[in-house]
């Protein structure tokens, strides 16, 4: 049950990453320049108040180095890349384990 849920989340994240990659490509072709939709901009466009609340919570509870160089680096990456990496990790976590050869159970 957990493996199928992890694979489902992974496939949804990979699909979102692919959609965002196609969006970047279509917008880049239309504008005749390279356009990269960053994760921070995506989060701001979806719900800016939650990004500000997350920033305030992280800065209040964790050391200052966590938000400024840590999380802002992730938020400055292309959204399709982050969704692709997260989706790949979830799919790998949800895969079946290979049977051990030569071991009796």
Automatic annotation (TrEMBL):
Protein origin, superkingdom: Bacteria
Protein name: Uncharacterized protein
Organism: Pseudorhodoplanes sinuspersici
Top-level taxonomy: Bacteria, Pseudomonadati, Pseudomonadota, Alphaproteobacteria, Hyphomicrobiales
């Amino acid at each position: 049950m957990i493996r199928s849920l992890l694979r489902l989340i992974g496939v949804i994240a990979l699909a979102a990453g692919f959609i965002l990659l196609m969006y970047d490509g279509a917008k880049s072709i239309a504008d005749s320049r390279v356009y990269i939709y960053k994760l921070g901009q995506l989060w701001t466009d979806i719900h800016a108040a939650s990004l500000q609340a997350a920033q305030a919570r992280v800065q209040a509870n964790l050391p200052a180095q966590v938000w400024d160089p840590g999380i802002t680096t992730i938020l400055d990456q292309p959204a399709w890349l982050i969704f692709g990496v997260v989706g790949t990790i979830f799919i790998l976590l949800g895969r079946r384990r290979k049977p051990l050869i030569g071991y009796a159970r």
